[in-house]
Amino acid sequence: MNSYSVIIKPLITEKSTTIRERDNKVCFIVRRDSNRVEIKSAVESALNVKVAKVNVLNMVGKTKRLNRFEGKRSDWKKAIVTLQKGEKVDFFEG
Question: Quick check: is 89 in a domain?
């Protein structure tokens, strides 16, 4: 896998914005079959930053109902990437 196929998209929520500003951490939605080493190398090569640590969470999709019909959202994987001191990701800035 190349670095652009591991990272699907950045995860931009209120919580991820708070930890980005406070702790210098960035959240991404990544492929479900990727591991920490692949995520670290993908972020470093795609964004030209140094990564200190990678935390990975498997998120279970919610069960949703609409009247009598029931469906399930797909499962996904979230990566919380801690950047080294002095590093910054530019695509969030205006």
Answer: no
